[in-house]
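Researcher: Here's a chain I'd like modeled. Treat it as a single chain, no partners, no ligands.
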Amino acid sequence: MANIFDYLNWRGDLSLKQDKFNNLDALILSRLSYLPFDNIVPEEFDKGISIFDAADKLFETENYQKNILWKGDVELLEHTSRSPRFKDMLLSGYVNIIESEQQMQFSALIIELDKDKHFISFRGTDNSIIGWQEDLNMYCMFPLPSQKKSAEYLTQAMQTLNGSFILGGHSKGGNLAVYAAAVSTPDTQKRIVSIFSHDGPGFTEEVINSRGFQTIKNKIHTYVPQSSIFGMIFEHDEDYTIIKSNQRGFFQHDIYSWEVMQRNLIELNRMTNTSQFFDHTLKQFVASLSIEQRRDFVEGIFSLLKNTENDTFDELLENFVKSSGAILKNIKNMDSKTRKLILSTLLNFIKCAKNNFCDINPLRKENRIVKKQNKNACKNKKVT
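Model: Modeled as a single isolated chain. Structure tokens:
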């Protein structure tokens, strides 16, 4: 089936004046912030470089591939840098921050659609261990450092640039886009045309019920694949659109698997049992733990990973034997209280998953009931 590359081949030759901005354009621009534009795209908001020139410089960089998160990102940049629709758009305001002490991973950039309209693209989680730790911190910390940073970034951008803004992001980037808009001032919110969250996590009831969130709720466009896991974390008060992916499970998070028809993502009517299973399991699991237990569990798990002296999961896999040995050694040397907490928490998650597996799958649930009835019938049967 067709994906965004087919869309770029089909409509990439038309400018935004010839064919107005659509949700596939938002998806493409949301993904551009994943490209490693360090020392290529200016940090200043009012100084820009075209997508064409930025791509040219990146591809000339030695070993740039090692900083590419998804294989499709290279192809996306190649397409957009050649496309009349995108190649002359200016990139600016690039920031890429990873801070271990604050447990923060934050990256964003601005794409100029025209002189009076800008798209802010917030990057989702990269492959850094700190980035993934911050994701899990959603369950025990609010607001996250990256959420605070996204609000600051939006304020600074609007103080420098004129006109209206569209916000967007994939994964955690979608969450950051919505959060930045929700906590911004009324004057800032008026300049926001729309917000796009592509399989981004939701929020707690506290955020959803806030005046700021309710003010911008109708501007939010949320898209989740049919077996979404990340996008169904926490709550979505806004309407969300279920879209079709040609992958399974976790791999549906990959936007290059999302199917398109002309200028739109293909929509579906319902989520799969897989998505419901993870949604119910995570909610039940999190509800069973106190805030302190969640925090101690996350810190315990990531202290094991950090002690391997790897900064990214790629490095962790490259040094798998050495890393595994370090983790086992650290588990052995860990204080008994923390070790017991990690083990009991993991067992609790397995228990929650087991409970939800049959409840979500109607056929298995029905079979379980039938087997129980047959078993009872055998017990009650008289032997003559």
